[in-house]
Amino acid sequence: MAPALKGRGGSPVSLDGGTMTRSCGFCLLLLTNLVALVASTDPGKNKVKVLRELKVINASSANVRQCLWFAMQEYNKESEDKYIFQVIKTVQAQLQVTDRLEYFIDVEIARSNCRKFSNSTENCVIQENTKLEKKVMCSFLVRALPWNDEFTVMKKQCVDA
């Protein structure tokens, strides 16, 4: 027979299986909550380490053009306009290096004469019809690994010009 457990003051303590199971379950629950709390409050967990700060770059570089092409594909896909928008002016391009290349691109875009679902966009020109003319200023943040053909539009902010 196992020796009796003694509580405070030396009085015997009886632990049946149910009490022990509930105690262990409660301790496990507390431990799980503590781990979840620590994991969710780690301020550095979701931070991206900046390897090179934001720097103005040449807007006509191949990588900027690739990112802008991708951003415009996404813009036109999400737009409810019947016509395709095209870039008419790249205002500024900046690059920041993290675990990827992050391109911050400011552009002026305008509605073209090509409808969204036409087969060819090669001969599109900017609308000159005053009823259909529309210009928009957009800022895109594109995260890229251009050598792997990986592009993601992280942020898009556009306002009518």
TrEMBL record:
GO molecular function: cysteine-type endopeptidase inhibitor activity
Superkingdom field: Eukaryota
Gene Ontology annotations for the cellular component aspect, listed alphabetically: cell surface; cytoplasm; extracellular region
Coiled coil: none
Signal sequence region: 1-40
Official protein name in the record: Cystatin 8
Similarity comment: family membership: Belongs to the cystatin family.
Name of the gene encoding the protein in the UniProt record: CST8
Keyword Signal: yes
SMART domains listed in its UniProt record: CY (SM00043)
UniProt keyword terms in alphabetical order: Disulfide bond, Signal
Classification via InterPro entries: Cystatin_dom (IPR000010), Cystatin_sf (IPR046350), Sperm_Mat_Cystatin (IPR052691)
Keyword Disulfide bond part of the UniProt annotation: yes
Residue ranges annotated for the Cystatin domain, each copy included: 49-159
